[in-house]
Amino acid sequence: MNSNKILKVYANSKKSELGLGDYIRIASFLPNLNFKKIYWYSNKELFPIIKKIDFIDKVYDLKKREKIATHSKKIKVINLYENGKNDYENLYIKNFFQKKRDIKNNTIDIYDKFADFYNIKKYKIFTNSKHNYRKSIDIFFNWSAPTKWKKKQLPKKKWQKLENLIKKKYKKIVWQNPDDNLEKYITKIQKSKFVISIVGLGNHLSALFNIPTIILCGPTFFNEAKKHKNVNLIYPNNPCGNKSCKVIKKLNHCGRMDHIKLDDILKRLKL
Ligand SMILES: [Zn+2]
Questions:
Q1: What's the per-residue H, E or C state across the chain?
Q2: Which of 47, 172, 260, 270 is buried deepest, with most CB atoms within 10 A?
């Protein structure tokens, strides 16, 4: 019923709590809505990500966003940063979540919430279909998290140990460089044959590009990744073997990244 309509997405990463990975997640759902075209209006900081997404037809500077009639029959809007009243033509994500928690905590089951709102029974998570990058990196280590998410990191010593254990089989191992700008970072992931990642932007990018990925999950709940066929999840063992650790019920393990076993990674790599 949307097939003769245009979907416009308005996003402003400076005025929203959404993380960069959330924009990829949200975009990956949009083709389920069956629009004729999807246009994305945002601040330029998001361009390096959004312009890499195959199924977004056009990307515009948010400044070009025109004032549209609220109930234009040909256009629907998803607004990712302003407040407003939700109806079938307009979805304001800030008002989309009912409970008064912040958006960040609410986006965990965003796919199901979208499906409910648009009354979609079955949906899939879309990824890019073009693969036009020469693969020159055997494994990319996506190891670093922003300062406030340090508890998502696997200790650097473990990564070094892992590198030593696998470098015979994987000649070119590249570590994420936190000083890279977004474009350079994305290009490195696109050039990778395989990614090992903590939970964060890197694993959303690798899933978008259909790159086989191992995600190391500790304190964050990440069942959603199971919807991607090239993605494998590794958690700390339950029990992890450390006497001071308690199993966190919701996570079904202790949640500590340093209790993820390197052996589990080696097994997935068939080493
Ligand atoms: Zn533990």
A1: CCCCCEEEEEECCCCCCCCHHHHHHHHHHHHHHCCCEEEEEECHHHHHHHCCCCCCCEEEEHHHCCCCCCCCCCEEEEECCCCCCCCCCEEEHHHHCCCCCCHHHHHHHHHHHHHHHCCCCCCCCCCCCCCCCCCCECEEEECCCCHHHHHHCCCHHHHHHHHHHHCCCCCCEEECCCCCCHHHHHHHHHCECCEEEECCHHHHHHHHCCCCEEEECCCCCCHHHHHCCCEEEECCCCCCCCCCCCCECCCCECCCHHHCCHHHHHHHCCC
A2: 260
The CA 219 to ligand 1 mean position distance, Å, reads 11
My answer on whether 212 and 94 are in the same domain is no
Residues with beta carbon < 5 A to ion ligand 1? 240, 242, 245, 254, 256, 259
Distance 142 CA to ligand 1 centre (A): 22
Calculate how far, in angstroms, residue 231's C-alpha sits from the geometric centre of ligand 1: 23
Residue 122 has pLDDT above 70, yes or no: yes
| Average pLDDT taken over every residue of the chain | 91
Residue 117 has pLDDT above 80, yes or no: yes
Domain around 56 = 6-117
Question: How far, in Å, is the centroid of ligand 1 from the Cα of 268?
Answer: 20
Whether 104 and 144 map to the same domain: the answer is no
Encode pLDDT of 75-107 as tens digits: 899 999 998 888 878 889 888 776 555 666 667
